[in-house]
Amino acid sequence: MQKKVKEDFFKASWKYEEAPESTNHIQIKKQYDLFIDGQFVKPVGNKYFDTIDPSNHRKIASVAEAESEDVDKAVKAARKAFRSWSKISGKERGKYIYRIARLIQEKAREFSVIESLDGGKPIRESRDIDIPLAANHFFYYAGWADKLTYAFPNRNPTPLGVVGQIIPWNFPLLMAAWKIAPALATGNTVVLKPAETTPLTALKLAEIIHESGIPNGVVNIITGAGKTGALIVNHPDINKIAFTGSTNVGKYIQKAIAGTSKKLTLELGGKGANIIFEDAAIDQAVEGIVNAIFFNQGHVCCAGSRLFVQESVADLVIQKLKNRMETLIVGNPLDKNTDIGAINSKKQLETIKNYIEIGTNEGGEIYQPKCSIPKKGNWCVPTLFLNVSQSHRIVQEEIFGPVLAIQTFRTIDEVIEKANNSPYGLSAGVWTQKGSKIFNLTQKLNAGVIWANTFNKFDPVSPFGGYKESGFGREGGLHGLKPYVKFESYFN
Description:
Blueprint: H1 2-13, E1 31-32, E2 34-36, E3 39-41, E4 48-53, E5 58-64, H2 68-85, H3 90-106, H4 108-119, H5 123-144, H6 148-151, E6 157-159, E7 162-166, H7 172-185, E8 189-193, H8 200-212, E9 219-221, H9 226-234, E10 240-244, H10 247-257, E11 263-267, E12 273-276, H11 282-294, E13 306-310, H12 314-326, H13 346-361, E14 365-367, E15 383-386, H14 393-396, E16 403-409, H15 412-420, E17 424-425, E18 427-431, H16 435-444, E19 449-452, E20 467-468, E21 471-472, E22 485-487
Parallel strand pairs: 1-5, 7-8, 7-10, 8-9, 10-11, 12-13, 12-18, 13-16, 15-16, 18-19
Antiparallel strand pairs: 2-3, 4-5, 6-22, 11-21, 14-15, 17-20
Helix pairs in contact: 3-5, 3-8, 4-5, 5-7, 11-12
């Protein structure tokens, strides 16, 4: 009885009051047009679609839907701009990119709120991770713009031309920065399409790009759904496609450009292995597990969605993880207390729910914390599955939501075999106090990015990308410049 009174006391004592971020300082238009050749222009077909707040299903704004003629206009504007942009000095290009970075910093608070409104992610993540990282990528590549001969010594790098870029809905502004910044630094011009469910920060970025004074047509941002993306991929005057999104769409793009001279980079799905050894700092590892799978509602291609715990500490880790999950707050993305925001769309919520049902029907032991969620909006309680095997679909297939599949292991060889038993190869995490063990696994895990005693840490200096069905090519770091250049002989 006394124990129960104490538990009730602490639950009551630690209830957080709501702390919503203000929206008074943001400016969102009722209707957004296409950004082509330095101006916002109406779509030829005069078609618009609504972008919706996933936390309450309210309409935020109407956004233009680009059709074939609009895509052609954007590509022509980019081609015309390329003739002069590719010839100006790297130092001058760097000035424009640097200016864009500074403008993002100046409007960071507005960007973060719009990102959370449109995408559903917690304001803490938008404010502290997405927006600062986006600015940092522009800063980083501004520095490389006049140093390409040092990046590729004795190779005479030159730009490819017009680049078509298609980005996903999970990190809208950050993905735009990942793609636009290195393309501009290397002298290319851009036609970018954001995801149809999260176009607003890309369109806000278009306003900043215009404000920066960059020459018209260097960056064009057009909106629409998959059809618009296909028009970009198939346009005959585009020299390169850079795509981040699902593996199925990536396969379509690869087939579509086969037999053409277009260059291609793909950053696709993932099913990251997060490995906890018995000598790990357990409390730190538990926080790492939470960050690996519940960050951004699990809408992360490199999420640690497969957890492998050494058998000797499995019971302890799982109990601590369950306890930690009971403290997670699911709710209003604009509340600074929120840990897990809204699922990006109704369609994605249905996909996640379907996988949870599959996991249950396949015999997995499900655990969900007791937490209240809003009645309206797209919400999913953080979920664990225990007693699953390598053959379970929730272990093999990407869910892209806050769902974690847990398995145990005894030896290093066993966990390496299990971790690599996946069609994907994007990310992995290793938790141990022994450096030799970390280096051993980094050589044997088939993953493009491997974190040690942390997870989901990003930096503009570090390259990112995967193997197998997670795609090819790298973004970020010096490696992120290479997909945007070709090498010509000095003796031509």
